[in-house]
Design brief:
single chain; alpha+beta; SH3 type barrels; Alpha-Beta Plaits; five-stranded antiparallel beta sheet; 10 helices; 59% helix
């Protein structure tokens, strides 16, 4: 085998010596390059050492393999061996210092740009995590940052890698005209045939960017209410109270009402008879609100004390007093149900009537209004 490669009989020791020298030199240079890359990444990203280990290993491996490929034949020549196959050292040197350096530079720049996008995204999430003031604010900011960061990182990675690959192919003397032509035709076809898809994606990006709605929010989309189960670039998934899943393309969302953005209100309307003193009823409602807020089971869900708006309306047989309690998101219904239960018990205890005497007509009894609305 060696006779075929070198065209004459050779000594194994010469080949092993050349290979060992090449491997040793490549290892030393690769280790230096890896340490330089590690120090630079730690300085730029201010990330823990665990985060930069993978890029450091990649730099070490690429540098090692590249040096072995470049130095092995010159090492054989220094050992007095002249291989009959492969590229001549002079030709290899000329290519390396011409197109080879440009290709290597393109690979390094492409890799650094991709890593820079990832590092900047990570630092953005890190800043949001430490700048947020409350626990809820922290979670929501981090969730939005991760969603947008992943999107931006993927898009920029595809663009950077595509441009780098095309440029490298040109350096390798590959005709990239068909590739660019095909990309142009594909872009034109997508522009004409996928207008709705592009509109949905752009709309979804701004829904996430502007933080209009989040997973877990109670929302009303195009008149349909439910809990948001998923927010994608193309669709929003909503599940209503009956468990039915509704899927809305982002570009088709005309109205969106978020019922749990940052906080919510438990609004309770209490109907009482005209014979009752509204000031007495309002004082009793405030006492019930204080007891509810002091209950350990509901204290964490209530953000502000009960607010009595006042007499909201005057009906035929009863007046309506409107109240509301500021709560955590999604807790307004639980607080409202408990508040109504306590109102019923307190009114019964104090003898307060919810409505007046039923009116009778020739057609029969008029159906009384509901206790609460």
């Amino acid at each position: 085998m060696l006779n075929y490669v070198f065209g004459a009989s050779v000594d194994w020791s010469s080949v092993i010596l050349a290979l060992a020298g090449t491997l040793a030199m490549a290892y030393v240079v690769a280790e230096i390059a890896a340490r330089f890359a590690r120090t630079s990444l730690l300085f730029l990203s201010q990330s823990p050492d665990l985060v930069v280990r993978r890029p450091t290993r990649i730099v070490r491996t690429i540098t090692f393999l590249l040096l072995v490929a470049i130095l092995f034949r010159p090492a054989l020549n220094l050992a007095g061996l002249r291989p009959t196959i492969g590229v001549e050292g002079r030709a290899l040197s000329l290519w390396f210092f011409d197109s080879g350096l440009r290709i290597g530079l393109l690979v390094v720049v492409t890799y650094l740009l991709v890593r820079a996008v990832g590092i900047l995204t990570g630092r953005f999430e890190h800043m949001l995590r430490h700048d947020a003031t409350t626990g809820i604010d922290t979670l929501e900011r981090i969730k939005r940052a991760r969603t947008l960061g992943a999107l931006v990182q993927h898009v920029l990675t595809i663009v950077i890698v595509s441009i780098g690959a095309i440029t490298i192919l040109r350096e390798l003397r590959v005709d990239i005209t068909p590739i660019l032509t095909g990309a142009g035709i594909l872009g034109l076809a997508v522009g004409f045939g996928a207008q709705t898809l592009v509109r949905d994606i752009i709309s979804g990006f701004f829904v996430i960017l502007e933080n209009q709605v989040r997973v877990g929010d109670a929302a009303v989309i195009n008149g349909t209410s439910g809990l948001v189960e998923a927010i994608n670039l193309r669709t929003i998934v909503l599940r209503d109270f009956e468990g039915v899943v509704h899927i809305f393309p982002n570009g088709a969302v005309t109205t969106l009402a978020n019922r749990t953005k940052d906080y919510s209100y438990a609004v309770v309307d209490v109907g009482t008879a005209y014979q009752e003193d509204p000031d007495v009823v309002i004082a009793l409602l405030r006492d019930i609100g204080k007891e509810l807020a002091a209950d350990p089971a509901f204290h964490e869900s209530i953000l502000e004390p009960l607010e009595v708006v006042g007499v909201e309306s005057l009906g035929d047989t009863y007046m309506t007093i409107r109240t509301r309690i500021k709560t955590l998101p999604l807790k307004q219904w639980e607080i409202a149900r408990e508040f109504r239960r306590r109102i019923k018990k307190a009114f019964d205890t104090h003898g307060i009537r919810f409505r007046g005497t039923q009116l009778l007509t020739d057609a029969g009894a008029v159906k009384p209004p509901p206790l609460t609305e």
